[in-house]
Amino acid sequence: xxxxxxxxxxxxxxxxxxxxxxxxxxxxxxxxxxxxxxxxxxxxxxxxxxxxxxxxxxxxxxxxxxxxxxxxxxxxxxxxxxxxxxxxxxxxxxxxxxxxxxxxxxxxxxxxxxxxxxxxxxxxxxxxxxxxxxxxxxxxxxxxxxxxxxxxxxxxxxxxxxxxxxxxxxxxxxxxxxxxxxxxxxxxxxxxxxxxxxxxxxxxxxxxxxxxxxxxxxxxxxxxxxxxxxxxxxxxxxxxxxxxxxxxxxxxxxxxxxxxxxxxxxxxxxxxxxxxxxxxxxxxxxxxxxxxxxxxxxxxxxxx
Length: 304
Ligand code: GDP
Ligand code: ZN
Known about the structure:
Blueprint: E1 7-16, E2 19-24, E3 32-37, E4 49-53, E5 59-64, E6 70-74, E7 80-85, E8 89-94, H1 104-115, E9 118-123, H2 133-147, E10 151-154, H3 163-169, E11 174-178, H4 185-192, H5 201-208, E12 218-221, E13 227-230, H6 232-235, H7 244-247, H8 275-281, H9 287-301
Parallel strand pairs: 3-5, 8-9, 8-11, 9-10, 11-13
Antiparallel strand pairs: 1-2, 1-4, 2-3, 4-5, 6-7, 12-13
The chain binds guanosine-5'-diphosphate and zinc ion (ZN).
């Protein structure tokens, strides 16, 4: 068998079947190695911090450190599956075209709030802001979320405007990009990681290294600092079933009203003494956000 080196700290950058690719966190020069897992370690995912030993051809994972956050998704049987660990930031990308649909941004924000990721809202394709109705709509959204205290940035993957600011905002921690297809996620990632052709590049490169295809996500480094955790499945994830009582805590400004209504089981619709209705009437909370809450709530009750 391989002789193994000393225990060291590592970062899981990809996952293949029963093995993972681990990058050293202790060595001056970054090296990575395919590793198998000691028995009884439980699940290990991209983004995990581990204790491992380097081998001649293959290393071994000895322990997984505590996670500060996890991204989970239901599998085809409805069981929650962990896809990636230690995510710090959810980068939500929108654009004037394709127009943001329904309450997609709020859905992502709910996920970010509940899973403990810091949301960052990007308005991409700002070169297309031409004063038309789509532009007006997307700018109004940007303003609303920034007034709610969410960090927002207008930028353009095409012209490069705002890309330096984005580089700066991403330079710490692990980020995940999400958003509707066509808003420019791949274009933005390509401009952050020069030389990477995301469609074909990163994922197939990761694949070539192994006999198994990646089953979860991969971790890539931004040259300006910070990491991207990505998989085709992550980029367009929607909202999965949450507990109804969790939904309101996903709305930053509505959260304060939890428990303030006259009736404990208030649905915040037509009930007398509803603190939320009152706050909306008084203008302390935005009707758009309250409506969005209702819509998401309805979609839980009637998933069709
Ligand atoms: P994704 O599906 O979110 O990954 O979106 P893509 O990165 O594939 O981009 C979708 C389309 O929008 C492509 O044709 C891009 O060239 C275009 N696109 C991306 N970013 C910009 C931008 O900042 N401005 C303009 N005008 N087009 C962009
Ligand atoms: Zn109420």
